[in-house]
Amino acid sequence: MKIAWLTLCAPLLLSACTSTQTVGYGPNLEPIPGSITYGGQPRTKLTKAPVGSIVPHQFFDDFGHRVYETYVIEPDRSLRLTSRRIDYDIFND
């Protein structure tokens, strides 16, 4: 009986060890420290990439969590932040 109970609870307990949170999508997403556009647009223009291209970016935030961001190149060659996902791992906290 104990083994059956452990077999049922193990996936739940293991899923709590590592989780991913999608922080946001859309036009109201603000850059955070580590974002490409934090503190303004980059000085260099992305001249070779076509308009509408997706630019992925990953970094570690101040708490050591891995952050994945997605940008889109606008017609004026600026970057627009479109999504952010943060991976939380209790073993790194």
Mind explaining what this structure looks like?
There is one protein chain. The chain has one helix spanning 2-15, and strands spanning 18-25, 54-60, 66-73, 79-89. It is built from 1 helix and 4 strands; from the N terminus they run H-E-E-E-E. The radius of gyration is 19 Å and the shape is elongated. It has one domain (18-89). A hairpin with a 5-residue loop joins strand 3 (66-73) and strand 4 (79-89). The protein is an alpha+beta fold and 93 residues long. The protein has a 4-stranded antiparallel sheet, with no helix packed on it.
Structural class based on helices, strands and sheet pairing: alpha+beta
Q: How many domains make up the 3D coordinates?
A: 1
Fraction in helix: 10-25%
Low-pLDDT ranges? 12-19
**How many helix segments?**
1
User: Compute the gyration radius: what is it?
Assistant: 19 Å
Elements, N to C (H/E): HEEEE
Main beta-sheet strand count, sense and barrel state = 4 strands, antiparallel
Distance between the termini: 34 Å
Strand segment tally: 4
Share of residues in strands:
35-45%
Rounded mean pLDDT is 79
Strand order of the largest sheet: 1-4-3-2
Identify the overall geometry. Answer: elongated
Keywords for this entry:
alpha+beta; 93 residues; 1 helix; four-stranded antiparallel sheet; 4 strands; elongated
